[in-house]
């Protein structure tokens, strides 16, 4: 079974969804039959590489007086999964290079580790995930070869793959993240209770 996860580093729901999906997969006896593929979905492709306002400040612009309650809701849901979501520290930036790094990690069998490190760096530590030095350090922590990481970031490696994911998302009808696509079927929300994600895996494996 192929499970495609459309996600972006900037999305706190993607971090929550990843943690819940990891739990569902860990519980399932058919885990070895599930091929997980991380797909790039840039929430802010026009964003700068230099950080601006925090995520919490941006949410205040979107939601007005409802923003504090919504920020607290996201924070509490993250805490329930063991995550520290510091929306007052996270500053949205361009994630194109971060996605390219995940593509390199995919080819080296380290995609899950790379996504986890990027999500933690952005949402918990408030780091600039568009900064080359930050990405190099995270690549090293994920177990990637330093020379390969530097070569990718210095050039345009995996740029075509990231852009191909944009087209793939449109073809599948993905309009937001996190979204899950099981064996090419219509996308479903990636933030669901662990029990529901377990059933999603169960149904997908039963259809093989």
UniProtKB/TrEMBL annotation:
Database matches in CDD domains: DsbA_FrnE (cd03024)
Pfam families named in the record: DSBA (PF01323)
Domain of life: Bacteria
Signal peptide: none
Domain DSBA-like thioredoxin: 3-199
PANTHER family: GLUTATHIONE S-TRANSFERASE KAPPA, THIOREDOXIN SUPERFAMILY PROTEIN
Name of the protein in question: DsbA family oxidoreductase
Species of provenance: Nonomuraea harbinensis
Lineage per the UniProt record: Bacteria, Bacillati, Actinomycetota, Actinomycetes, Streptosporangiales
